Amino acid sequence: MAPGLKRFTDVAGDGTPRLDDAAGEELMCVERAASVALGSRAPEPPGTLFITTRRVIWLSEAEKGKGYAVDFLDITLHAVSRDPEAYPSPCLYTQIEAEADSDEEDGDFDSEANGDSQLPKISEMRIILADAAQ
Predict the structure, then answer these.
(1) How far apart are alpha carbons 54 and 70 in whole angstroms?
(2) What's the rounded Cα separation, in Å, for the pair 17 and 30?
(3) Boundaries of every domain in the chain
(4) CB distance 49 to 34 below 8 Å
(5) In the predicted model, what is the mean pLDDT of residues 35-57?
(6) pLDDT of 57-100, one tens digit each?
(7) pTM
(8) Of 95, 18, 84, nearest in space to 57 by CA
(9) Is the pLDDT of residue 1 over 70?
(10) Cα–Cα distance list, 55 to 18, 69, 98, 101, 133 (Å)
(11) Fold annotation for 6-128
(12) Are 19 and 25 in contact (CB under 8 A)?
Protein backbone atom coordinates (compact mmCIF):
# COMPACT_ATOMS: atom_id res chain seq x y z
CA MET A 1 0.00 0.00 0.00
CA ALA A 2 1.28 3.49 -0.85
CA PRO A 3 2.39 5.67 2.05
CA GLY A 4 0.73 8.87 3.10
CA LEU A 5 -2.62 10.42 3.81
CA LYS A 6 -5.68 8.59 2.49
CA ARG A 7 -9.37 9.33 2.17
CA PHE A 8 -11.33 7.44 4.84
CA THR A 9 -14.98 6.51 4.39
CA ASP A 10 -15.31 3.17 6.21
CA VAL A 11 -17.70 4.38 8.90
CA ALA A 12 -20.10 2.28 10.98
CA GLY A 13 -23.73 3.22 11.51
CA ASP A 14 -22.90 4.90 14.83
CA GLY A 15 -20.45 7.28 13.11
CA THR A 16 -17.28 5.63 14.38
CA PRO A 17 -14.62 4.27 12.04
CA ARG A 18 -14.60 0.56 11.31
CA LEU A 19 -11.37 -0.83 12.70
CA ASP A 20 -9.24 -3.72 11.49
CA ASP A 21 -10.21 -6.14 14.25
CA ALA A 22 -8.39 -9.02 12.54
CA ALA A 23 -5.10 -7.09 12.90
CA GLY A 24 -5.87 -6.20 16.53
CA GLU A 25 -6.60 -2.52 15.89
CA GLU A 26 -8.28 -0.88 18.89
CA LEU A 27 -9.69 2.58 19.54
CA MET A 28 -7.52 4.44 22.06
CA CYS A 29 -8.78 8.05 22.11
CA VAL A 30 -11.62 10.18 20.71
CA GLU A 31 -11.48 13.98 20.48
CA ARG A 32 -14.60 15.83 19.35
CA ALA A 33 -14.57 19.27 17.70
CA ALA A 34 -11.09 18.71 16.24
CA SER A 35 -10.03 20.24 12.94
CA VAL A 36 -7.28 19.25 10.54
CA ALA A 37 -5.30 21.46 8.20
CA LEU A 38 -3.72 19.62 5.28
CA GLY A 39 -0.55 21.11 3.87
CA SER A 40 -0.87 24.87 3.58
CA ARG A 41 -4.67 24.83 3.34
CA ALA A 42 -7.06 26.38 5.84
CA PRO A 43 -8.41 24.04 8.53
CA GLU A 44 -11.36 21.81 7.73
CA PRO A 45 -14.56 22.48 9.70
CA PRO A 46 -14.56 20.65 13.06
CA GLY A 47 -14.93 16.91 13.13
CA THR A 48 -13.96 13.99 15.33
CA LEU A 49 -10.43 12.68 15.74
CA PHE A 50 -10.00 8.97 16.43
CA ILE A 51 -6.65 7.59 17.53
CA THR A 52 -6.31 3.85 17.25
CA THR A 53 -3.43 1.49 17.88
CA ARG A 54 -2.51 1.78 14.18
CA ARG A 55 -3.88 5.02 12.69
CA VAL A 56 -4.96 8.60 13.14
CA ILE A 57 -8.45 9.05 11.63
CA TRP A 58 -10.37 12.31 11.27
CA LEU A 59 -14.05 12.37 10.26
CA SER A 60 -15.93 15.53 9.32
CA GLU A 61 -19.01 16.44 11.33
CA ALA A 62 -20.23 18.88 8.66
CA GLU A 63 -19.81 16.67 5.62
CA LYS A 64 -20.79 13.05 6.23
CA GLY A 65 -18.58 10.61 4.37
CA LYS A 66 -15.57 12.93 4.41
CA GLY A 67 -12.58 11.75 6.37
CA TYR A 68 -8.84 11.19 6.29
CA ALA A 69 -6.56 8.57 7.79
CA VAL A 70 -2.83 8.08 8.11
CA ASP A 71 -0.98 5.05 9.47
CA PHE A 72 1.33 5.75 12.40
CA LEU A 73 4.26 4.34 10.42
CA ASP A 74 3.74 7.08 7.82
CA ILE A 75 4.05 9.86 10.41
CA THR A 76 7.72 10.80 10.34
CA LEU A 77 7.60 13.67 12.85
CA HIS A 78 5.16 15.14 15.31
CA ALA A 79 5.35 18.04 17.73
CA VAL A 80 3.13 20.33 19.76
CA SER A 81 3.19 23.80 18.18
CA ARG A 82 2.17 26.86 20.17
CA ASP A 83 4.14 29.46 18.19
CA PRO A 84 1.64 31.89 16.59
CA GLU A 85 4.26 32.81 13.99
CA ALA A 86 4.38 29.21 12.79
CA TYR A 87 0.60 28.68 12.85
CA PRO A 88 -2.20 30.88 14.25
CA SER A 89 -3.66 28.21 16.57
CA PRO A 90 -1.97 25.77 18.94
CA CYS A 91 -1.85 22.41 17.18
CA LEU A 92 -0.23 19.04 16.87
CA TYR A 93 2.05 19.34 13.86
CA THR A 94 2.80 16.18 11.88
CA GLN A 95 4.98 15.44 8.90
CA ILE A 96 3.73 12.58 6.79
CA GLU A 97 5.71 10.36 4.46
CA ALA A 98 4.49 11.51 1.06
CA GLU A 99 4.78 10.15 -2.45
CA ALA A 100 7.94 11.12 -4.31
CA ASP A 101 7.72 14.24 -6.50
CA SER A 102 5.27 15.86 -4.11
CA ASP A 103 4.12 19.26 -5.35
CA GLU A 104 1.55 19.82 -2.60
CA GLU A 105 3.40 22.90 -1.41
CA ASP A 106 2.56 24.87 -4.56
CA GLY A 107 -0.91 25.54 -3.12
CA ASP A 108 -2.63 23.75 -6.01
CA PHE A 109 -4.13 20.99 -3.86
CA ASP A 110 -7.91 20.74 -4.04
CA SER A 111 -9.31 17.43 -2.80
CA GLU A 112 -12.63 17.97 -4.56
CA ALA A 113 -11.19 18.99 -7.93
CA ASN A 114 -8.26 16.57 -8.03
CA GLY A 115 -9.85 13.69 -6.16
CA ASP A 116 -7.95 11.26 -3.97
CA SER A 117 -4.87 11.26 -6.22
CA GLN A 118 -3.47 14.35 -4.45
CA LEU A 119 -3.88 13.07 -0.88
CA PRO A 120 -0.70 10.93 -0.83
CA LYS A 121 1.27 14.05 -1.82
CA ILE A 122 0.31 15.91 1.37
CA SER A 123 3.41 16.02 3.57
CA GLU A 124 2.07 18.02 6.54
CA MET A 125 -1.04 17.82 8.67
CA ARG A 126 -1.96 19.97 11.65
CA ILE A 127 -4.47 18.72 14.21
CA ILE A 128 -6.26 21.55 16.01
CA LEU A 129 -8.16 20.56 19.14
CA ALA A 130 -11.09 22.57 20.53
CA ASP A 131 -9.34 22.67 23.91
CA ALA A 132 -5.77 23.76 23.23
CA ALA A 133 -4.78 22.80 26.78
CA GLN A 134 -5.14 19.08 26.00
Answers:
(1) 9
(2) 11
(3) 6-128
(4) yes
(5) 97
(6) 999 999 988 999 999 999 999 999 999 999 999 999 999 998 87
(7) 0.86
(8) 18
(9) no
(10) 12, 7, 16, 24, 23
(11) PH-domain like (2.30.29)
(12) yes
